Amino acid sequence: MSFTAPAPSHLAYVPFVSVENMMALVHAIGIDVFLRELAEYLEADFRRWPEFDKTPRIAAHSAEGVIELMPTSDSSLYGFKYVNGHPKNMKEGLQTVTAFGMLADVSSGYPTLLSEMTILTALRTAATSAMAARYLAPANSRTMAIIGNGAQSEFQAIAFREMVGIHALRLYDLDRAASEKCARNLAGMGFDMTICDSTEAAVENADIITTVTADKQCATILSDNMVGAGIHINAVGGDCPGKTELHRDILLRSSIFAEYPPQTRIEGEIQQLSPDHPVTELWEVIAGKAQGRTGKGQITLFDSVGFAIEDFSALRYVRDRLEETGLYEKLDMVADPDDPRDLFGMLQRSKMAAAS
After folding, report:
1. What is the CATH number of the domain that holds 316?
2. 3-state helix, strand, coil in the chain (%, to 5)
3. Which of 15, 153, 176, 206 could form a disulfide with 145 if both were Cys (CB 3.0 to 4.6 A apart)?
4. Same-domain check for residues 294 and 321
5. What is the pTM of this model?
6. What is the pLDDT at residue 1?
7. What is the pLDDT of residue 10?
8. Helix axis angle, 19-29 relative to 118-136, nearest 10°?
9. pLDDT for res 352
10. pLDDT of residue 191
């Protein structure tokens, strides 16, 4: 007598987007379209920001880096991201940041999507930066300095080209090879690029300054005398206690915008300021409840640390593009016995089936 374990039901399978399929998805859609459409999802979720559960990310810090969980949910979907930040990894031939994420159905708790998020995080970070700049940067901005030319730099450049109109890039990194890599990767994409020998040279005549360095320490990437009136600063490379890029005096001269201040005050540039220093939440600007750029000489600062709702938006976007592209695998991930009370019986029947 032989036994056959029942085949998994459709409820057992969860769509999984691997790194290979994520890359194929970006190419199938086109990175420019991908970034623009992703920004639309981000903006839609920022407009309904009060609907989400929000908490600062749950972090495990070590001398080498940080591992974080970033959860959020609305009335129908739950999402989280696992992400690390280990700057020393680069010297060992490893990624500084790796990530994966999941969506689940709030009503049942069943997962509905599992995805790589190393590439997707780079895309959503760039899309968020450019989305914020549309509200905060000087009108008709055309030149951007990028300080730190590692893994995020090209994504930022393309997002700002597509959504803000940036066509001139001034690149600087302590390691000139990183700037050369960035310029090489962006060749033929319509940028006028200059590799600079110092931060001071890079920020000269820039409308927007993006800082995206990775060292896990307090550093003065931008000093006060480098920042003139009317600049927009896109401060991306913070993200942990004790890690800053901007001199405190720049903050005191700036109108500061943040995603979720309770998290940004722990990890962002504003950790240098008093807990009651005024900060405007970006969602309020996007929803028309607060002003963004109000004057020609105003210095605006987007103190970007990344927040779970942005990952939620990115996962929603990927989920919605899977059916038409088919760029995913089915993982047999959820135990789904015919009788929900008989999980043990399901286990035993699989043993008998294997032995027959």
Report:
1. 3.30.1780.10
2. 40, 25, 35
3. 206
4. no
5. 0.93
6. 43
7. 76
8. 40
9. 78
10. 98
Residues 191, 262 within the same domain: yes
Radius of gyration of the CA atoms of the chain, in A = 22
Co-location of 70 and 207 in the same domain: no
At 161, which CATH number? 3.40.50.720
Give the helix/strand (H/E) hosting 273: none
Residues 138 and 263: their CA atoms lie apart, in Å, by 27
Q: Based on the structure, what is the number of domains in the chain?
A: 2
Helix axes 176-186, 153-163, angle to 10 degrees: 40
Catalytic residue among 45, 239, 303, 311: 239
- State yes or no: is 239 an active-site residue: yes
Residue in the structure block whose two tokens are 């000093």 = 223
CA distance 24 to 114: 16
Inside any domain, residue 210: yes
Residue 126 lies in a domain: no
Cα–Cα distance, 301 to 339 (Å, whole number): 56
Same domain, 176 and 81: no
d(CA 45, CA 261): 17
User: Which amino acid type is present at position 257?
Assistant: F
User: Any idea how long the chain is?
Assistant: 356
Q: What is the mean pLDDT of each run of 10 residues along the chain (356 residues)?
A: 59 94 98 98 98 95 91 97 90 91 97 97 98 97 97 97 98 97 98 97 97 75 94 87 90 98 94 96 98 96 97 98 96 90 89 76
Q: Looking at the domain assignment, is residue 65 inside a domain?
A: yes
Q: Which residue has the tokens 């990894």?
A: 89
* Residue 246, CA distances (Å) to 29, 181, 234, 243, 310 in order: 36, 25, 11, 10, 24
